[in-house]
Amino acid sequence: MKSKAHIKTHPLHPILISFPVAFLSGTLLFDLLAVVTGNMSLWQAGSYLELAGMISAVVAAVPGIIDFKYTVPPDSSAKKRAARHGLMNSAMLIVFLAAYILRNNESADLSILALEAVGTALLVTAGWMGGTLVHRNHIGVYNRYANGGKWKEARLNVSDGLIEAAEESELKKDQMKLLLVGDKRIVLGRSENGYVAFDDRCSHKGGSLADGTMICGTVQCPWHGSQFSTETGEVKAGPASQKINTYPTTQMGGKIYVRFPEP
Ligand code: FES
What we know:
Shape: elongated
Radius of gyration: 24 Å
Transmembrane segments: 12-36, 48-66, 86-102, 114-134
Number of strands: 15
Strand order of the largest sheet: 3-6-7-8-13
Helix content: 40-55%
Keywords: 2Fe-2S, Iron, Iron-sulfur, Membrane, Metal-binding, Transmembrane, Transmembrane helix
Protein name: Rieske 2Fe-2S domain-containing protein
Number of helices: 5
Mean pLDDT: 92
Strand content: 15-25%
Low-confidence stretches: none
Cofactor: [2Fe-2S] cluster
Order of helices and strands: EEHHHHHEEEEEEEEEEEEE
InterPro entries: DUF2231_TM, Rieske_2Fe-2S, Rieske_2Fe-2S_sf
Largest sheet: 5 strands, mixed
Number of domains: 2
Structural class: alpha+beta
Bound molecules: FE2/S2 (inorganic) cluster
């Protein structure tokens, strides 16, 4: 799913985390060497690395928080994983901060080393989760299939039960657009039979269908491949077992409208 914190579609969070990962794991390495060799200049270097690691971790967290709030699909397995990833990184930062405050620049200390080992273990575990978020949940990955066109998204209001969703010419066949309507996410798609609208949430584990592939009246979830009919919402292929909601569409005056369900 395309990141909301990016430069020319390259997500910032995975770029920036290289710095705290290198600095904080380097802290443990330099401090370990200082304890083994008794060389206090290595211990001093560890102190600098620790400070640089914490500062760069806070900087890297900013695009991460933006993606957590605006990119990760709500009510999904990835949202829970991203929350655990953020909590674990916060705990990691607290542990390294404690080690930094408690360290004595006159002598290399095993208890500081133990704290940093715990912090590094948290860093590695949180990093592993981050890898799952990218490589399995495609968070920050700009998936575009042949003829899928660029990512389209708009925040819209409901008026008289209708959403003015798009200009008639906006979507080509097999293209989709994500509509954010209050806290609801609806996908507008154009199939060979006309316009279709359906929930953005895959009924399996909440993958974003707007981030998937739509072809021949079928939309496929990018996470585990479930397929749904874009006209009826019926499951065509699992692992999903429940249909998704679909919504009527209508064309008027060169615009496409989606009829929003009455509350
Ligand atoms: S979330 Fe698993 S197939 Fe969609």
